[in-house]
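User: Let's play a game. I give you a shape written as tokens, and you guess the letters that built it. Ready? Here's round one.
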């Protein structure tokens, strides 16, 4: 019989060995025939020729609440089929705080939004994270490589929402979820899609949703990166053909494609053995990069550009939720040189939030101008049908930006821009965000035309921007 002291010693030795091992968060592809989470064609109850895309920005609970409010509003638009507009979302692409809502909506649909609000958005998420990390046991565990600061967020997300669900649970479901982190070394977006994971010879399907959401929301310094292992070289997946095409592309003609191609080549060649992921807002705080790429590129599936050319897509609804912060800084009224903490906060947070505006304008240009340019090129080349199809889509594209900048009242606009980027907001702030997300979508100038285009009707009267403003006092008021 083994002596109790020996058992204790063995346990401590095993614990020490485990404590020296870094966590493995992604698995290698073991079979080319294994079911994987990929884009699939819409089912029989879909819109058919209408593509619905929703993107959700970063911004902590502020972003999670605003994107939830927009999804609730879309769910209150009833279609002739009896389904809601939210049921017909094809692509849901998100960053950081918006990824919490996006990930849970993809898992549960609109039926899960009340649980999201109760178990996460209206909970104080900061206190549990701090208590777990700062208690003696937590500090001891975090001192070993086997548990990192990001695990505090992963565990909290699983406890409150995801319950260890993996991407496997999303196979065959709508919407197609794209959670976006950023490669902290390369500074480019890292979308959690199988075509990205293929570059690492890794399978997305068994990965926990909480891990991908946490990577998307891993705010620099406060949280540690999520590190993925590169299983290249492998024989199961060959490098995609578009990498060679990207290598031949002139940087002057298409800088984003060249940059993404170089990073993808570094993944596929095995040059980068580990990929360290931080908050997706570093590279794209609106989550629009991948939808933009899918609409304009021939590199990765789904090839929406090809679907438009062939007339399979004739209408596009694009809802962009931007919860960026623009809170006035006390530094603007101080002559003293900012300290280290102030500089660090400004260099990270401000750059993430301010980068959103130019990206939104780039997307608007794509939807309202680029398709017409493609149509003109097709006309010149003699492809009249393709030109007609792109002109049809250009005329039937509705871009609805849900953005605090659309609030005309300066005091109200400042109030919403000043809501903290945090995992803990007051009940009053959440109530106001619920109302404002609804109002900004419903009062968008393209909303009535969008309803007419899809044959939708509101099931209730939506709140106005003025009503939402009344729910949140002005700063200092």
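Assistant: Ready! My guess for every position:
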């Amino acid at each position: 019989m083994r002596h109790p002291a020996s058992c204790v010693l063995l346990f401590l030795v095993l614990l020490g060995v485990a404590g020296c091992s870094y966590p493995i968060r992604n698995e290698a592809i073991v079979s080319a025939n294994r079911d994987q989470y990929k884009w699939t064609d819409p089912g029989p109850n879909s819109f058919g020729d209408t593509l619905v895309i929703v993107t959700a920005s970063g911004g902590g609970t502020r972003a999670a609440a605003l994107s939830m409010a927009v999804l609730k509003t879309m769910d209150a638009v009833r279609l002739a089929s009896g389904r809601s507009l939210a049921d017909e979302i094809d692509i849901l692409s998100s960053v950081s705080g918006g990824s919490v809502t996006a990930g849970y909506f993809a898992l549960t649909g609109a039926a899960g939004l009340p649980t999201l609000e109760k178990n996460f958005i209206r909970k104080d998420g900061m206190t549990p994270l701090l208590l777990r990390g700062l208690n003696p046991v937590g500090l001891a565990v975090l001192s070993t490589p086997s548990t990192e600061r990001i695990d505090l967020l992963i565990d909290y997300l699983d406890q409150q929402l995801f319950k260890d669900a993996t991407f496997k649970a999303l196979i065959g479901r709508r919407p197609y979820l794209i959670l976006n982190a950023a490669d902290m070394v390369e500074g480019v977006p890292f979308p959690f899609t199988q075509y990205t994971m293929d570059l690492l010879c890794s399978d997305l399907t068994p990965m926990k949703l909480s891990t991908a959401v946490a990577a998307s929301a891993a705010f620099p310094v406060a949280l540690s990166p999520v590190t993925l292992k590169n299983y290249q070289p492998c024989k199961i997946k060959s490098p995609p053909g578009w990498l060679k095409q990207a290598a031949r592309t002139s940087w002057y003609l298409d800088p984003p494609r060249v940059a993404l191609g170089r990073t993808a080549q570094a993944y596929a060649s095995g040059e980068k053995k580990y990929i360290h992921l931080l908050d997706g807002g570093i590279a794209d705080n609106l989550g629009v990069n991948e939808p933009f790429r899918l609409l304009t590129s021939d590199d990765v599936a789904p090839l929406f550009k090809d679907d438009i050319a062939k007339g399979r897509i004739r209408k596009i609804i694009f809802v962009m939720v931007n919860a960026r912060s623009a809170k006035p800084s006390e530094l603007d009224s101080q002559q003293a040189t900012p300290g280290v903490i102030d500089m660090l906060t400004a260099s990270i947070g401000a750059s993430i939030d301010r980068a959103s505006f130019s990206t939104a304008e780039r997307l608007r240009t794509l939807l309202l101008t680029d398709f017409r340019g493609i149509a003109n090129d097709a006309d010149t080349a003699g492809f009249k049908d393709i030109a007609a199809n792109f002109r049809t889509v250009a005329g039937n594209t509705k871009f609805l930006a849900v953005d605090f900048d659309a609030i005309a009242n300066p005091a109200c606009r400042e109030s919403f821009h000043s809501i903290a980027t945090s995992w803990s907001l007051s009940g009053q702030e959440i109530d106001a965000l619920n109302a404002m997300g609804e109002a900004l979508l419903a009062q968008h100038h393209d909303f009535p035309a969008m309803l007419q285009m899809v044959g939708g009707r509101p099931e209730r009267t939506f709140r106005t921007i003025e009503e939402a403003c009344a729910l949140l006092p002005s700063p200092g008021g």
